[in-house]
Fold:
Amino acid sequence: MTIDLPSKATLASWRSGCRDPGDVFLHLWRSANKWGPANRDIMPPPPDDFIEAMRKAVARDDGAVAVTEVLDLLTTIHPGRGAYEARSSFGGAALRAMALIDDAFRITHPRTRTVAPSVGTARIPLWLKVAEARRLEDGEFGRHETLRLVPNGPFMRHGRHRTASSGNSLRDEFSCLTCAPLSGEQEGTRVEIDVEVVGTDVATGVPASRSIGRETLCFIPLAEDAEDLTFRSSKKGRSTLLDVTPSRNLSGRLHEAARLNGDADLAIAPELTLSHGDEQAFSDLCTTDAASLPRIMLAGTGLTDEVGPCGRPWNEGRVFNKVGRLLWRQRKVWPYGMGRSAADAYRVDDPGPDALLMENVAAGDMIKVVDLDGFGRCVILICQDLEARTIVEDVITHYQPDWVLTPILDIGVGVGRWVHQRAFALSKLSQARLVVGSSLTLCVIKDPVDGTATPIGLAVGPLSVPPAEATSENPEQARAFAVVRADGTSPKTAKLRWNYEEPVWSKTTMVSERDLKKR
Structure:
């Protein structure tokens, strides 16, 4: 692969389109990504005088002035159509310029304010203050064509190690910035990726955590008995469709469960357990005793009143803060299809041979990446969406979330089941914590005697051992892993603290016989 450099004319054209060095970073990323790992591996560092001049250029207050000086420095050393060695030298200088721009953003990165707050005393150029204000408003520092410039995740822990990919990877080269795609695909269908920023004020956001890295999770099954959910099937076209709705208003049960676990950082309720019409009732209840509630509550999912072009509602999750303010919504992207054997086990209508009992919902067309600057970057993947390819890999790989939250409707989350396997596989892509919460209704329908003992909460990750540092005693493929079961009273809940020293946690590979026997 040759080193295809941006021409001098291209560098000149960037001057009018770039507001600040962050925009230059975005353009350079697009070029550097084309050079390929074998070329980037051997690009030499620039001389010290270039580095010092570039550092001063990036530190200018005026964004336009900084852009001009950065591009002038790159233009001065541009080799034109020079030999490979000269082009490689320019590439090395461009990568160093990107590293200096990346470092300039460190002072405003959410990770700096939480993981390493002592770093936050340096001077901030005016252009960077403007860029940060733009991110808070628009969710991004900027965009160009198919990419957006955003803070590199995660926010509540240090990012992936440079060696994490076991090869040269541009996205692992930079600590504070990344260029991430605006969209992905699920089964060939375009899925937009949207970014929102939620602040740290109590009324409209989520205050910063006091227990970074050791957050407490509360799993609320909400649908506890066979009668708590209603299953109805219907025919449309060639498909048998399945509607799942709560049999009663469960907002009071959800609020009470959350109130009894007010010391939790995050509460998660499962899929299809709170109707769209009952979410306001839950929000109103939260306003009466906000001091006694978890910081963030994923209030399950439910069917919307609004319908899509296909005439069907969306399966939508809702996230609230502790004062009952709705922070964001996420619609399910990939409707689930239940096979004949599962339909028989759960005592719902038989879809027939070689057919699926299809979830009667419209397909969402967007995955939201929500930056909670006081809690971390969050993504919600509703049940089947966890299996969506390649959109899920794209989101986790390029956005590096702190949290991947998955409410499901299933017979629990035991060791070796599909959610464990998928979460285990995805945990290699990032430092994310993957959290799955299930209800108990299907468990009780399948097994009326022991169904309530089924695990309802699962947590996996993050991968903590870089491949280059792995040993036989501490293998890089190991993950932190825990499952929890609900207590015996109603409203049922299960708590889990993210603390690997507690006995509920284990280090597991996929999946050892010892782990199976333990559970």
About this structure: The chain has two domains: 8-111+125-181, 184-517. The longest strand covers residues 296-307.
